Amino acid sequence: xxxxxxxxxxxxxxxxxxxxxxxxxxxxxxxxxxxxxxxxxxxxxxxxxxxxxxxxxxxxxx
Length: 62
Prior knowledge:
This protein is mostly helical.
């Protein structure tokens, strides 16, 4: 039973780490895109980004 508990805990830590890394990677991609487009907002330019709320996610994450 203890081994199962430890493996579940490690799995959740892995998922948490992956989620944090995904947020960081997304923010870096948005910043790079803004730098390439002269600082324009990503959500204003890209319909796909607007659908997922890219601008609000980056502002909340920062």
